[in-house]
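Our preliminary data section would be incomplete without showing what the modeling component actually yields. Below, a chain of 290 amino acids is followed by its predicted structure, encoded as tokens that our downstream tools consume directly.
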Amino acid sequence: MTGTLEIVLITGMSGSGKSVALHALEDTGYYCVDNLPPELLTSFAALEEQHGTGKVAIAVDVRSATSLPLVPRQLQQLRARGVAVQLLFLDANTETLMRRFSETRRLHPLSRTDALDQHRALVEAIELEREILGEMREQAHVLDTSMIKSSQLQGYVKALISAPANQLTLVFESFAFKRGVPLDADYVFDVRMLPNPHYDPELRELTGRDASVIDYLSRESQVGDMFDQIEHFIGHWLTALVKDHRSYVTVAIGCTGGQHRSVYLVEKLAAAFSANWKTLKRHRELDALR
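Predicted structure:
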């Protein structure tokens, strides 16, 4: 192989949005294939490079459960032959997955159709799927789709694939604890103890990106201390993370509403690291309002 081929391999839980992610990549010029049998991955990659395709997105899932164990070694072989490979794993909490299957009336690929209690059968199928996909999840960059809209997921996927595959990318994400901790976070920092602009009527409807809120939080010594300590922690371990061959590290900052303190710190941290590292920003709660 000549190394001109780029592959984004998408996997994850059934109902987590793999089709949405695949369509997002198709919109950016990727040739997309859904549910490719893992046994064909390396030969398919060779064929597409001969065709000069350039960029390929492939979705594999639990429907190929018996051959999924082949994937990690195949990806290693492709990288050794010069192919740029990114592995994305889409996840969602069990409650969300069950709601989505109920709304679409689709049958989970691992569900037992002969079960008397279909609710229990669905829970068991989801738990079994998590177990089967566990190894691939450990090796992938995880995107939690539990609390985000399809348009958010499309934007997140497009931002991720724009990052160099051979370089560590830092993803800073703000969120609201009241809506749950993101499943895709590698590190979670709780900043709910910091002074809260919510209690100032003039700042309540603003966000951590607005000048008035920035001025408010920048004057608080506790906020400065929290920023310094998070920045030091992440900076201290970046070299070790690179040596561990990590492609992405997601740092989640949570406050009560995901609107002021966490947003402010994500913006400030992303700015601090962007001079030397590829950085991406996500504001889960704010992005959902767009």
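The radius of gyration is 21 Å. The first helix runs from residue 18 to 27. Preliminary results of this kind motivate Aim 1 of the renewal.
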